[in-house]
Specification:
The complex is a heterodimer of chains A (484) and B (90). Chain A has 484 residues and is of the alpha+beta class. Chain A contains 18 helices and 7 strands. Chain A has a 7-stranded antiparallel beta sheet with strand order 3-2-1-4-5-6-7, with helices on one face. Classes of the chains: A alpha+beta (484), B mainly alpha (90).
Chain lengths: 484, 90
């Protein structure tokens, strides 16, 4: 395409990086944050009792509650069990269904504030909050990221030396050094996270083999490697056997802690109790299960082994979700995720800086890139910070409260886009980043005022450090040219 | 549209659509000839398909001309497709 292979790859790196950079930035930043999705979801419902209870206690509480409220439901779900004192239960049926959050010790209902927790951020991460179309754009961005990593390595003649090169305070040179340093230092992580991201919905994205061997029947394919035992309702009433002994038997059999329990047609002679094993102590995300006859308590089936390919792809998915190694592994992912975000951001800024050096007065391409850079790189953190602030500020009784929180994120972000388009000047970056830092402090202030900060300390501390980091970046690097 | 721009547009199509088709066709063929159970064949070949697409994308922009890019992607894709049709779905 260009004179040499290396120049062609350089061109590909720059063009595809620019076109997909804004998507990749959104994916990288939200992905970094949702490394702690479980912790964030709990933090967003401070009404949940903090001290953890045993799984056995939680199951007994849930069982008692479900027997009372929905003895003839088609199915019950209990869990997932978390590191806190609440247990979520759900019941499903043709005309009745519902869910509740219970105090795992007393069984009393907890009226926690209505929130989607980390879910909107997860939704932004894997499909840009745009359904199936968004999923395809994210998958395409993943392929572009992989290609960008390969071409990035190719266009580097001095990959080893760049590992040790950082020349601050030298304009374009410094941004390029930062881009290279972050990229080279975390290259293995970047390759793994892009590839394993694609492996979460593999047969959906690449249906060729599935069409060839299964006529495109995804359920038939899944059943071939994962089929928890099931049996139909008999119509004969029967008493459900206590769940706690089954839970203990399952944990022994599966050699690990239970993650979730489900009961199919409780109160019927055909009842089935299924226990899923937690996958947070090993790489593979495959959820081992054991199923019991719900009236006699005998084992109907169990699965802890899978075909080799399934096991391998379960491990690839596990590498993406980062649940396998405890808190410290997640911190490593978080830091590497900040590096991903920084690589994309510096890459986008570099394109604009390089373009600005051209002697052109009215550059419409640059005008657009400058504004999108501002609206996405600085605007998304403002939106996310506003989401967390809304969680603390919106009144608990508000109708559609959870939706209002989510809407706050997107309205504030849209406001940043408007700001970038109509009011951007040399201090816009600084102001927008300072606004994000300020909004990140709102939940801390509210928690301090309500005396709740004790149980929420860890996330509040992370928020404070993030706010300080964003503010420092705003003051140090906030003066960025914006083409008029 | 200049010939340069036309060439770029053509390569983008070759990389995106052509490469995607090649990856699926090659992986479908692979899943048909791979020994072992079909669930294993599908899982492994689906994984490999992503790498095939990546290589096709790089080829589309590394090739000396847009025509060569299309030959390098379309040729193998057609060959795989013909082989797939000969073997037939099963």
């Amino acid at each position: 395409m260009k004179q040499t292979f290396r120049l062609s790859m350089t061109w590909l790196h720059r063009s595809s990086g620019l076109l997909f950079g804004w998507f990749l930035y959104v994916i990288a930043l939200t992905g970094t944050i949702v490394v702690f999705s479980d912790e964030i979801s709990v933090w967003m419902q401070p009404e949940i009792p903090a001290s953890p209870t045993s799984t056995a206690q939680a199951v007994m509480t849930a069982e008692r509650y479900l027997h009372g409220i929905a003895p003839r439901a088609e199915s019950w779900s209990i869990g997932p069990f978390g590191q806190h004192g609440a247990i979520a239960v759900g019941w499903f049926g043709e005309d009745e269904g519902g869910s509740a959050l219970l105090d795992a010790r007393t069984g009393a209902g907890i009226t926690a504030r209505d929130t989607h927790g980390a879910e909107p951020l997860v939704d932004l991460h894997f499909r840009l909050h745009s359904g199936t179309l968004g999923m395809w754009v994210v998958a395409g961005s993943g392929m572009i990221m992989l290609a960008g990593l390969v071409t990035g390595v190719i266009l580097h003649r001095r990959i080893f030396r760049d590992f040790f090169t950082f020349r601050p305070g030298k304009g374009q040179r410094s941004w390029l050094d930062a881009h290279n340093l972050a990229g080279v230092a975390t290259l293995p992580f970047q390759i793994v996270i892009a590839f394993t991201g694609l492996m979460i919905f593999p047969v959906l994205l690449m249906p060729g083999p599935l069409l060839m061997r299964y006529d495109g029947d995804r359920d038939a394919y899944i059943t071939d490697y994962y089929a928890p035992a099931a049996r139909p309702e008999t119509g004969q009433p029967a008493t459900l056997t206590p769940l706690r002994p089954l839970l203990e038997k399952a944990e022994h059999l599966l050699d690990g802690k239970a993650a979730q329990v489900a009961v199919a047609h409780p109160g019927d002679a055909g009842a089935v109790v299924t226990v899923w094993r937690a996958a947070d102590d090993r790489l593979s995300m495959m959820a081992d299960w054991t199923a019991f006859d719900g009236t006699t308590g005998t084992i109907l089936g169990s699965q802890t082994r899978y075909p080799a390919g399934t096991e391998a792809s379960g491990a690839l998915v596990g590498l993406h979700f980062a649940k396998f190694g405890g808190l410290w592994t997640r911190w490593l992912y978080f830091i590497s995720g900040i590096a991903s975000t920084a690589i994309v951001a510096t890459g986008l800024l570099l394109w604009a800086i390089k373009r600005r050096s051209r002697p052109v007065t009215h550059d419409r391409g640059l005008w657009l890139v400058d504004r999108l850079n501002l609206a996405v790189i600085a605007g998304l953190p403002v939106g996310i910070a506003a989401y967390f602030a809304a969680n603390r500020l919106l009144p608990p009784g508000l109708a559609e409260r959870a939706e209002c929180e989510t809407r706050t994120l997107f309205l504030v972000w849209a406001g940043c886009l408007g700001w970038a388009v109509w009011r951007a000047d040399r201090s816009a970056w600084k102001r927008m980043l300072l606004l994000a830092a300020g909004l990140l402090c709102v939940p801390i202030v509210v928690d301090l005022a309500s005396g709740r900060v004790g149980s929420q300390m860890a996330i509040s501390a992370v928020l404070a450090v993030s706010a300080a980091g964003v503010a420092a970046a705003a003051v140090r690097y906030g003066r960025v040219d914006v083409a008029s | 549209m200049t010939s340069e721009r036309l060439s770029v547009a053509s390569r983008v199509l070759a990389a995106g659509l052509g490469g995607y088709f090649l990856a699926n066709a090659a992986a479908a063929l692979g899943s048909a000839v791979l020994p072992g159970t079909r669930v294993e064949a599908v899982t492994w070949m689906t994984t490999a398909a992503f790498l095939a697409h990546l290589i096709a994308i790089l080829w589309a922009f590394a090739a000396r001309s847009a025509l060569r890019a299309w030959i390098g992607i379309g040729g193998p894709a057609l060959a795989c497709m013909v082989a797939v049709l000969v073997i037939g779905r099963a």
